[in-house]
Amino acid sequence: MIQDLMIERAKQLLLSGEITCAAGWKRGDFITDSQPAIFESLQELENLVYDKYCAANLSKYLVGLNLKEGKILVFLKPCDSYSFNQLVKENLIKRESVYIIGIGCEGNIRLEEMQGTELLERCLVCTKTEHVVYDELVGEQLNAREARSRFEGVLELEQMSSGNRYGFWHEQLSRCIRCNACRNVCPSCNCRKCVFDNNKYDTGQKASVSTFEDQMFHIIRAYHVAGRCTDCGECSRVCPQLIELHLLNRKFIKDINTLYGPYQAGEDISAQGPLTDFNAKTDPEPGIIHQGGQADV
Amino acid sequence: MPLDKLDNLDNEDFTPLIVAFCCNWCSYAGADLAGTSRLSYPAEVKIIKVPCSCRIDPLFVLRAFQRGADGAILCGCHPGDCHYSTGNYYARRRITLFFSMLDYLGIEKQRTHLEWVSAAEGAKFAETMRAFTKQIHALGKNKKIAGGLRKELHANFSAYTGFGGQGGQGGQGAEPTEGRG
Ligand code: SF4
Ligand code: SF4
Fold first, then answer.
1. Chain B positions in Cβ-Cβ contact with residue A289 (cut-off 8 Å)
2. Which residues contact A10 (CB under 8 A, 6 or more apart)?
3. H or E segment and range at residue B137
4. Does the CB of A259 have a partner CB in chain B at under 8 Å?
5. What percent of chain B has pLDDT above 90?
6. What sign for the dihedral angle of Cα A272, A126, A166, A195?
7. Which pLDDT does position B177 carry in this prediction?
8. What are the DSSP calls for A59-82, one per residue?
9. How far is CA A263 from the centre of its chain?
10. Which residues have C-beta within 8 Å of that of residue B99, sequence separation ≥ 6?
């Protein structure tokens, strides 16, 4: 079983001194509750699990990590490796202090369906079937499952009238409780001080005062990760209010793809990000948004 | 705040509030030229000077809407003429995406506009502002993305600028999520 292979390999690396600790998942209070964990000894490694509930993307846990010596071992699913790459590109992870073991993934289970077998939305549209960065691969590399187009939802919304779209987003975003989970889990959201933090007191900003605050939070959050969001789907996964946050991020991704050429964040660390780049000749004017389309109602 | 409540906030005739973000080197100078050439443009337009169109953070625009603006117009040097060489090329991409996102959220796209205005185009500046103001008049009050703080804004604006009397509570609203309403 892949889990046993992972434990065995981690133990070997630990014994050989190649790594000083490992980042993986351990079982939580329930069987569906596999959570991120750091393992520092052979004994602790016995508790490592890898199953369909190991949805957490471990890349973010490596941000700002400053190891004095040795390396940390991290297990990455194919989609997680994109986030990892993006973070390396942004100089937030030192590639040389991490040892990556790539593991195959059959998709993660939606937690709302504890007993069920329904996959996370991101897994239903997943095309990231190969690791973009790794030191070694362990176990069977499954993947290549049939996927829906990830832009279906965006297209559907685009075809609605502007009034209906507003209604849709109003309903979605007014459910937000500003728990900040989406922000905290996001590998691209890694500012030490967020613009949405309260700057009078040293606390995270919570509980917005009006629905406008939520609109603004979500527009700006999506905007801040535009061009860097790898579409890892963590934000939608963790939202306790089941807000379809991927529809915001994918709108930016879709726009970038159509206006400035296909771009997948995290795929290639030498590629110039779409918003830190321009093409003086071919970039359309913002007026392109105002032309055509539907009249506002 | 429920929309109908917002309606009752002010029953006076609709005078839109339009915020124009103008870059220091071209558009602001263009506005100046419009002034010195005695070309009038609507008083509803309030200009905010920014160093470069690239400095316009989408948060500025959203903040303007929250504080009661009915339209936001962004102006900068023509592509190729940026004082900092490339600022407006970056701005062009960002603003395109931002406008697209606002439209996607169902916010009337006619409320936002971008126009490249050079320092020599005083007439174009005045004409653009007239046309945009007309467009906002036709659209009516901004309800979809307003924070319901119109009155306060007018008061604050006088406090900041020293025009219009009454005085507001001053500049405490600068914190991004310090909503008041
Ligand atoms: S999908 Fe969500 S969590 Fe993942 S990078 Fe994009 S915004 Fe961040
Ligand atoms: S995770 Fe969901 S409820 Fe929490 S802040 Fe994000 S969108 Fe709002």
1. 96, 99-100, 103, 109
2. A19, A22, A24, A39, A45, A48, A73, A101
3. helix B122-139
4. yes
5. 60
6. negative
7. 42
8. GGGGTT---SSSEEEEEE-HHHHH
9. 16
10. A286, A289, A290, B109, B112, B114
Contact B113, B74 (CB under 8 A): yes
Dist CA A111 CA A120 (whole Å): 8
The total of other beta-carbon atoms located within 10 Å of residue B99's CB is 25
Q: Is the CB of A54 under 6 A from ligand 1?
A: no
Q: Which ligand has the minimum distance to the alpha carbon of residue A246?
A: 1
CA distance B129 to B41: 6
Q: B33 — phi, psi (to 5°)?
A: -65, -40
Beta bridge partners of B116: B76
pTM, rounded to two decimals:
0.85
- The verdict on B102 touching A (C-beta cutoff 8 Å) is yes
For range B140-161, the mean pLDDT:
60
Q: Do A289 and B100 touch (CB under 8 A)?
A: yes
Q: Which amino acid is at A89?
A: K
Could you tell me the two tokens for A209?
Answer: 């005062």
- Closest of A113, A96, A100 to residue A32, by C-alpha: A113
Q: What is the DSSP string of B98-136?
A: HHHHHHHTT--GGGEEEEE--TT-HHHHHHHHHHHHHHH
Measured distance CA(B24)–CA(B106) in Å, rounded: 31
The CA distance from A251 to B106, in Å, is 13
Cβ of A251 under 8 Å from any chain B Cβ?
yes
CATH 3.40.50 at B15-171, yes or no: yes
The residue among A212, A217, A177, A227 whose CA lies nearest residue A194 is: A217
Going by alpha carbons, the residue nearest to atom 3 of ligand 2 is A176
Contact B20, B129 (CB under 8 A): yes
**ipTM of the shown complex:** 0.88
pLDDT tens digits, one per residue of A25-60: 999 888 888 999 999 999 999 999 999 889 999 999
CA–CA distance, A214 with A176 (Å, rounded to integer): 7
Is A23 touching B (CB cutoff 8 A)? no
Please, what is the Cα angle at B102 between A234 and A199, to 5 degrees?
A: 65
Ligand 1 within 6 A of A86 CB? no
CA of A29 to the centre of ligand 1 (A): 26
User: From CA B60, how far away is CA B83, in angstroms rounded?
Assistant: 21
Strand ranges, E, within A83-151: 98-103, 136-138
Write the DSSP symbol of residue A294.
P
